[in-house]
């Protein structure tokens, strides 16, 4: 290439720049952090390349970042001796949306209202393009580490596009010059930039020099003794490392010598971005070996359910040359993962007992992740089960309890842990399914999200006690007895009523009809017979627009002491037609109170018919 080449931005970059340049965004200073972090990345990449490549352009340059401010020319210049860029890389990196932060930003933008755009810039950081918040024109001088590379100059006003031309040789890396907008002249002042660097870039692992003076103390906070570190330092590091704007919810800093030498600093954020519909999070715990970055977000290191964690794991036992390909099958990494996951789970259970309020906050935000862990992380399933929290028939509304506490309250004779699924506490408390348990004083765990039932099925048991749904048709509650009041229907009449009902309703609706041992107040109860497609599972599949098999027949239990049942027995002998209508309606009502009703179309006309009969 000899002359100046004119390029246009990819359409999406154009849109992004339009927002960036026109937003009245108060935190414009974050551009410093974005550019310094790019420079640090470029240096980190160079450090890595040095391990494998023999020939590196300008090999003897120090790994540092130099920043110059010029109040007369209204410029700020950021230079690094990092990896640099070739012509293709310039086009790819500074002309398209390659970077995950700006991609997420564009995604969020599509979903958001006009007014919130400026806020989004702060949330995501738009990387290199943030320079255009403060600059009229940006020039990038660069030379790749590759010996055959040339020196190139990229220039843009952030509007029409950019030019690239070959220029006289400078040094390896990138030098970015920002010609500041008039309302951004403050960023050419040394004291202003020094303040910003102190705030955002104290943890950059390379020297940062401002007008020739070093401004950061290069330190790996995770290697220091935790007694010497203040809350503020942790928070600053978290902000830097996780690209966050608030404090972490929980901090875990520990070191271990056996079986591996590990120093880890793990942060639990305050927010779970997946809850806001931002798609699946990328793992956020970086892997270091003796303070040298190996991988900023290793994919296979920790179990998937821990993808919300941020921070650093440093192990002196790791080989520096560990590549992403060899990472997957490294025994060493499996050991690291085991140690870290175990330690983090312990930290959560300690938090739960020492600081329940913090744990509740954590649980509210990340319970879905824990539940994902229960169903996918076999090795830690039982420990994770101890961390689950639910409301129950013995808790107040909105207060939660765990399985361990449940076991502590359970009667000696009780063999299982019982749960019930329903849309809300109120809905659950109105089902006949609870009657037997109330009468017997047995605690029932309330599940209000369809995924919870899936979790219970996966878990199967807790400390040797089976987890049982109260709507299971084969439930045996004989070990404790309930005393219902009133005279029951004679056993002969009851038997014939049951077989009459079964015949009248038909096999598609009921698999069996029998006398109930569990009902106290309600006349009937519908029980689930399908262990695979449970009612909660059917709802979940329906919500996901999957095909579901026809609604299975239920087991119907009747309350022999209930007046309606007693009178129905008599009516079925005298007026079969009316009795049949009533039986159908009883069946529908049972489905409704159980929360099983999927198609109520026939119910209303039938009720009218019955009302008509009543009015006669
Ligand atoms: P991000 O840094 O998050 O990937 P940016 O938009 O800030 O996103 O930068 C896009 C890409 O440009 C980077 O991924 C990197 O490849 C390249 N880049 C930016 N700054 C530099 C630099 N100082 N040295 C080398 N490459 C850089």
Structural features:
616 residues, alpha+beta, Heat Shock Protein 90, Ribosomal Protein S5, domain 2, Rossmann fold, 4 domains, nine-stranded mixed sheet, five-stranded mixed sheet, 20 helices, binds adenosine-5'-diphosphate
CATH superfamily of the largest domain, by name, is Histidine kinase-like ATPase, C-terminal domain
What is the CATH topology classification name of the largest domain? Heat Shock Protein 90
Helix content: 25-40%
The proportion of strand residues reads 15-25%
Biggest sheet strand order reads 1-6-5-4-7-3-2-8-9
CATH architecture of the largest domain: 2-Layer Sandwich
State the oligomer: single chain
Q: Return residue spans where pLDDT drops below 50 for at least 5 consecutive residues.
A: none
Return the structural class.
alpha+beta
Number of strands: 22
Q: Which cofactor or ligand species appear?
A: adenosine-5'-diphosphate
Domains, number: 4
What does the average pLDDT come to?
88
End-to-end CA span? 98 Å
Please write the CATH class name of the largest domain.
Answer: Alpha Beta
Tell the overall outline: elongated
Count of helices?
Answer: 20
